[in-house]
Here is the input.
Amino acid sequence: MSTQNQVLSISKPSYRQGKNIARQVFHEVISAIDLRKAMVEKLRHEGETLIAGEAHVHLARPPHVIAIGKAAVRMAATLDEILGGRIASGIIVAPELPATRLEHFRYFQGGHPYPNEDSVAAARAALEIVSRLTPDDVVIFLISGGGSALFEQPILPEVTLKDLIEFNRVLVTCGLPIEQINVLRKHLSAVKGGRLAEAAHPARQLTIYVSDVPLELPSMVASGPTMPDGSTVEQCYRLAEENGLVPRFPQTIRKQFEGRTLRETPKPGDACFQHSQYLCLLSNRDAVEAAKQALERHGFHCEIDSGDWDADYRDVADRNIAALDSLARNHPEQPVALVVGGEVICKVTGPGMGGRNQAFVLYAAQKIEHQDRVVLSAGTDGRDGNSPSSGAVADGQTVSRARALGLDPEQYLAASDSYYFFRTLGDTLDTGYTGNNVRDVRFWLDFGSN
Here is the structure.
């Protein structure tokens, strides 16, 4: 049976249940991108060989493991299971730590979105382990999103933790896309931009990563601690100068830009990557495909809009609505859905609480007022910006409900306070930390004349 016939055989979804359907689909997406399931499917331990996708790693002795990022705890636990506990030593740094801990591992609760003392301690501990390795050793790096803040060690000793926090605050609030932010981070760090791999040379290295960046930019995951860096110090200088960032940096970092003394990172072809292999475990594409399949199961004709969505959230919303309009015109007899991935850009303009996903939905809610439409946007990591929610959902009645309660959408947008707007309405998405991160997923539902 064709997909279209399958959709037509399902009872037509109701707009009255639109927000509930959207919530259910998001939870189905989170279940579909389960880390343990992906690792068990893609990794096999046969004798003294670990097979990870196309990579084959001989394990004559137990490997060392460095797990970094929002998915670090679950990735390390699953690898330990696959290897039957045969791990020499390990580091796990994550935003939240488990009650039950693995043998052979040291745990650090790093900071996010800004580094903390454990972020620095974890990086030092990892450098201590990998710097002692020989060509006979194997180190497995488990990398996921959030690692840029969770795991950090500045190159220059005079750069303090306070300086690192301020530097990251400037970056995450300046409105640049994540790939440009990470270009700047890489060149100030002793563990980013391939420098962790450089420290681990001459050991054999396997990096298994969950991508929270554009798929074509794998070295941007956690600022690429184990991958060759294609960016340059000249790009750093240009990004900082063109965006007026240098005067906002703390003095110990500002002087490196003013004096043009940044050190270059290891590049493709460098000897330190000679024995490195890589496996992408999950990416945003997996989440987007899972959303499409879930929406089709719920009775929608669904399409993926695969444009470049790492742009201003208002521009993205406007383009999404135009695409949804076209999709609805082409399928007038059935409800339709549009799925979009990526991470929109949302500059912080006020002191409130929220994030790019909730700001996106707040702007979009005004565009679909009085229409039989629903919009949802959420982060697969379970956190949106500085709020405790992963995102929000809205429909054609959201704005009128808000105004009846005295809430002005534009005021909340200007104050970067989208979380309190949606919390008041009961329309936040509260999953808690998911232990995963493959960027954001957003979808639009159009119920037509239903």
Q: What stands out?
A: Residues 313-330 form the longest helix (18 residues). The two ends are 25 Å apart (CA to CA).
